[in-house]
Write a structure and sequence with these properties.
The chain folds into three domains: about 65-165, Trypsin-like serine proteases (Thrombin, subunit H, Beta Barrel); about 180-280, Trypsin-like serine proteases (Thrombin, subunit H, Beta Barrel), CATH 2.40.10; about 285-380, Pdz3 Domain, CATH 2.30.42.10. The chain is about 20% helix and about 35% strand. It is built from nine helices and 22 strands. The protein has helices at about 1-25, 40-45, 60-65, 90-95, 125-130, 265-280, 295-300, 320-325, 345-350; strands spanning about 50, 55, 70-80, 105-115, 120-125, 135-140, 145-155, 160-165, 185-190, 200-210, 220-225, 235-240, 245-250, 260-265, 285, 290-295, 310-315, 330-335, 340, 360-365, 370-375, 380. The termini are far apart. InterPro entries: Chloro_Bact_Ser_Proteases, PDZ, PDZ_sf, Pept_S1C_Do, Peptidase_S1_PA, Peptidase_S1C. It holds the Pfam family Trypsin_2.
Length: about 375
């Protein structure tokens, strides 16, 4: 009986194996089977929307709008030749005389980018691109090269305005709105990296409102992963419609090349600085003449403060607006003109935004008591380190 069972089991196994092979290789031998409806990839994916026959994944339209307004900036300056190490040796001067001091001067060159912001030829760029240059040449998108003059500079925001004169009206970029920019939005960086020529790179807005980076006095950067390299400085950061949203200013890099962390000055700040420079030749900011430091947890505890809010007045300049108003070292500033102050940078920006000559309310904590003082705002000196 056991032997018959083994023969039966082996026969069933062989039959199933044969049936599997036949149904796989010759399904028509098995007979009719219900056919499952085929599903194609095109049916499972939504149709790609197009704009003017072009997929929206392409940003050629945005680049075409912005490219004519982005220029290359070439600078040069005269630098003194390095003094000969034996120039002061009496023996060498006896034989060579003044020839050691009469060597030809050398010229250092630099490059960067800029953005045409008006048909009259005003160009917005970074201050560090044109700083100390005695010759500036601007190369337009169509290949023309024009000399430029400096209208004004603002080192504290690292912005500068140039002007060029062309025989025709120049193509100016369209300004976007910073408040409509969000983290995750697509942006394009346009400039002249490493001098290779006009280049467009794409990325997204990685963060907004970046500050405390130690790059500029006034910081409110847009962070992006769009590739920004040396030579891109002063170039345009535009949105997916080609509108200007920032001026490329700096990168975080250990090698000198892009690591996906770039910073651009938002168009709101750039436009405000640009308009003041064009109208007045410089930027006017408020100032009261104090030195400040952050309120740490240890300082808050030593002052008996309920929290670490505010900023500590560590010094007051004699005869300054703060001194005349009665602000003292050791006071903790809590608010400026109704705007809360949480750190020294916030205080700097709040005071700088006030017009010189007006009186503003300052809320302070002194000896565990809150007081309010009226301070007449002064004009911030150039490159002032105090507030």
């Amino acid at each position: 009986m056991h032997r018959l069972w083994m023969i039966f089991a082996q026969a069933v196994t062989v039959s199933l194996a044969v049936l599997f092979v036949v149904s796989t290789l010759k399904p028509e031998w098995v007979g009719d089977r219900p056919v499952l409806p085929s599903i194609t990839i095109q049916e499972t994916l939504p149709a790609v929307p197009t704009s003017g026959g072009r997929p929206v994944a392409s940003y050629a339209d945005a680049a075409r709008v912005a490219l004519p307004a982005v220029v290359h900036i070439f600078t040069s300056k005269e630098v003194k030749a390095q003094r000969h190490p034996f120039a002061d040796d009496p023996l060498f001067r006896h034989f060579f005389g003044d020839r050691l001091d009469n060597r030809p001067q050398q010229r250092a060159s630099g490059l960067g980018s800029g953005v045409i912001v008006s048909p009259e030829g005003y160009v917005l760029t970074n201050n560090h691109v044109i700083e100390a240059a005695d010759e500036i040449e601007v190369a337009l998108n169509d290949g023309r090269k024009l000399s430029a003059r400096i209208v004004g500079r603002d080192p504290e925001s690292d912005l500068a305005v140039l002007q060029i004169h062309a025989s025709d009206k120049l193509k100016a970029i369209t300004f976007g709105r910073t408040e409509q920019l969000h983290v995750g939005d697509v942006v394009l960086a346009i400039g002249n990296p490493f001098g290779v020529g006009q280049t467009v790179t794409m990325g997204i807005v990685s963060a907004l409102g970046r500050s405390h980076l130690g790059i500029n006095t006034f910081e409110d950067f847009i962070q992006t992963d769009a590739a920004i390299n040396p030579g891109n400085s002063g170039g345009a950061l535009v949105d997916s419609a080609g509108n200007l949203v920032g001026i490329n200013a700096a990168i975080y890099s250990r090698s000198g090349g892009s690591l996906g962390i770039g910073f651009a000055i938002p168009v709101s700040l750039a436009r405000s600085v640009m308009e003041q420079i064009i109208q007045n030749g410089s930027v006017t900011r408020g100032w009261i003449g104090v030195e400040v430091q952050a309120v740490t947890a240890e300082l808050a505890e030593s002052f008996g403060m309920p929290s670490g809010d505010g900023t500590l007045i560590s010094g007051v300049m004699r005869g300054s607006p703060a001194d005349r108003a009665g602000i003292r070292p050791g006071d903790v500033l809590l608010a400026v003109d109704g705007r809360k102050v949480n750190d020294p940078q916030a205080m700097l920006e709040a005071i700088a935004a006030l017009a010189p000559g007006r009186k503003a309310g300052f809320e302070l904590r002194r000896s565990k008591e809150k007081i309010e003082l009226k301070v007449e705002i002064g004009r911030r000196p150039a490159l002032s380190r105090g507030d």
